[in-house]
Amino acid sequence: MTVLAAEPVAPSVARPELPPSMVERMTLILDAFDGRSTRLTLEDVARRTHLPRSTAHRILDQLVRLNWLEHTPFGYRLGRRALGLGGQDGGFEEIRVAAAPLLHDLQIKTGMVVHLAVLEEADVYYLDKVGGRFAAAVPSRVGGRAPAHSTALGKAMLAWLEPEQVDVQIGRAISRLTSRTIGDLSTLHQELNRIRQRRGLAFERGECFPEIACVAAAVRGPEGPLASISLVGDARTPLEKVAPLVVDAARQVSLALHPNLGNGRRRPRAVSADAGPTWSVQTLDRLMLAGQNGDWL
Fold it and tell me: Which of helix, strand or coil describes residue 290?
């Protein structure tokens, strides 16, 4: 009788035990983001945490809803709640510091109210407000919010997002604040396309508050809009004349935060490939001339 030797059994690789509680699993996912600039896909998170893909996806969705994480076209990243550790800063101090001298310079040059804001879901969130003689008449405040689709600040940032992302963020929240507010997604997309054709320059007159007009441009990073800067005046203010100053200020803040922005980094598909990250001196001169002639809009 022949005795067959049993084949050696390969030792099994011990899989790490999954944390039993939801809090532990959420902490495990947050710990996978080892820096402010870390971007992870769903697959990256599942691999780093050893969580099942479906479990990781479900928890990621919850963390995004609670602002612990943000979901961008390039993956997940730490959100304002994680970056700000629940404090008042919300993770935006770097943007505020980079923009502060330029906001002050804009206010001195124009005598107008200057805003700095970021996009949070369907709203703009005001990070800074530098006032002039008109400041008391502008019903905005640092830490306040306004519907993004009704403001030049918001439209300047929305124009750099994927159209599908605009639908998700704004779709259910779109409504009219005044008779001039955009009230449907189709019209909003037409407006955002016009903003892209103006290479990111956004206007609004009486859309958020009656008798108030704004011009804004987005502060951009390699993955999309980071914030936006606006100049505010009354409905009669010739915003076309100051538009190049807003564009230049936003460009300078973008480059202060991301010096390599103009070196061929990837841009969102929503903007045509020939839309460069900066405005040439010649373009700014033409914009200023158009404003002086009154034929901008």
Answer: helix
